[in-house]
Design brief:
about 280 residues, Rossmann fold, 3 domains, five-stranded mixed sheet
Length: about 280
């Protein structure tokens, strides 16, 4: 975003006044950004807020997310076939072969689904053949129906991505248990709120991570994963491996690491080690 979005802003305000002002500034920036990019929010913060407190920057980001999603929610929808006139296609999923989909199938049939696809698959499993078949079967104007939200996705991020993909194809989405229906204005608003909360959570995680790394550096510690093997460990490993009677597994066990870790630090393994004097 532009780096000159805060000229003349005086932050000589009470604490709550600062947060409200930062949030409102962020909201206006979010609205303006939507006119520039309707697909992706900008990451992080502009340089102009680098001197703000952590709480003020968090309030600005919250306002930015809310303003962007509010602009998106009020934008006219693309011209597609009316969703209410299409087919209702059901999708049922259970996590293991021992579970039955009868409860889901009954609910989907009662909801008026004319075709139902069902399968046994973990929520973490990306490859779901029956879901892919259902999506391939559907056309603009249809709506995908599930018994509960967790039948379609295992995380809020995955759920939002899936529903936005459906919306881009002109396909609606309904969840019977949570009474969510994106073919209605209320259902669309619900998912815009979900998306805003997910984006806000991601921004807070990034901010906390950045603050933690800055604090660690200030105390003289570098961020990132510590090395599994020190230089002293590597010298010991090389000395041991120079003895053909000692195996790589034995060396790894002595250093309390996996053999794969040892190979990562010593590409080529024993073949790259030369005994002293060779």
């Amino acid at each position: 975003m532009a780096e000159d979005v805060f000229p003349g802003i005086d932050f000589a305000l009470p604490a709550q006044g600062k947060l409200d002002a930062a949030r409102e500034i962020g909201r206006q920036c979010g609205t303006a950004w939507y006119a520039h990019d309707t697909e992706v929010l900008p990451p992080g913060f502009p340089n102009s807020v680098s001197t703000w407190s952590l709480r003020c920057r968090a309030a600005w980001r919250e306002g930015l997310v809310n303003g962007w999603h509010a602009a998106k929610a009020s934008a006219p929808l693309p011209a597609v076939a009316p969703l209410s006139k299409g087919m209702l296609v059901g999708y049922a999923r259970v996590s293991t072969q021992e579970q039955a989909t009868n409860l889901q199938l009954d609910a989907l049939a009662k909801a008026g689904c004319t075709r139902v696809f069902s399968e046994s698959a973990s929520g973490a499993q990306r490859d779901r053949p029956e879901l892919a078949r259902a999506l391939d079967y559907m056309r603009p104007g249809d709506a995908l129906v599930v018994w509960k939200l967790d039948r379609l996705a295992r995380s809020l991020k995955q759920l939002i991505e899936t529903v936005e993909s459906l919306e881009g194809k002109g396909i609606g989405f309904r969840s019977l248990t949570e009474s969510i229906d994106t073919t209605t204005a209320g259902g669309k608003l619900t998912f815009h709120i979900f998306a805003a909360l997910a984006e806000f959570e991601r921004s807070m995680i990034r901010e906390r991570t950045r603050a933690g790394l800055d604090a660690a550096r200030a105390r003289g510690r570098a961020g990132g994963r510590p090395r599994s093997l020190t230089e002293k460990d590597l010298e010991m490993a090389k000395t041991l491996l120079a003895n053909p009677d000692i195996t790589v597994d034995e060396v790894a066990a002595r250093l309390s690491v996996a053999p794969a870790t040892l190979y990562r630090y010593l590409p080529g393994g024993r073949g790259a080690i030369h005994a002293p004097g060779e």
